[in-house]
# Entry
Amino acid sequence: GQSLEQPSEVTAVEGAIVQINCTYQTSGFYGLSWYQQHDGGAPTFLSYNALDGLEETGRFSSFLSRSDSYGYLLLQELQMKDSASYFCAVSTPDSNYQLIWGAGTKLIIKP
Amino acid sequence: GAVVSQHPSRVICKSGTSVKIECRSLDFQATTMFWYRQFPKQSLMLMATSNEGSKATYEQGVEKDKFLINHASLTLSTLTVTSAHPEDSSFYICSATHRTYEQYFGPGTRLTVT
# Structure
């Protein structure tokens, strides 16, 4: 089967740094995406990694290791507005652009 | 960035009636649109994938006669929940893409069937 594993919940303090991990087992692999979803809202795209390494976009960075089937999302200088659920998702060949979704990580930020 | 609208944002209907949800890509041509269902505190559950001008591909366990999907143009897809029942109450979200793996999501529709 195909599966993605990520922690169900992570707690951090405002201003700190937090890392949300994602491991995957899929029959093929094109890339790893991260999406943010606030309560009551729809997911919004954060990042996409197709190659190994770290991609930085402002306070958010995303890392991928294809050999380890592993990636993470790094959030720096946490703000209260970053409280949300974060989903990793894998794209695979011949999938008609479908994504395989993780269960999501709820990030709780304390003042 | 790409914008996807979804209408209505909330709908309450009586059991047995049908509800149509529209999903539009406002500033790009969506070659593929996806319909998801999401229960509280759970991940997105893909219901179907639709390509413009062709029949939707439904995921296992999703009744195609109950959830009618039409992708009539490169900017519009509709989901019709037919003969809705209380168990169909959920958050329905569409997303669109143009030949990439980056999906742009609509704001979602919260359906309540009484």
Notes: Chain B touches chain A through 24 residues (CB under 8 Å). The first strand of chain B starts at residue 4 and ends at 7.
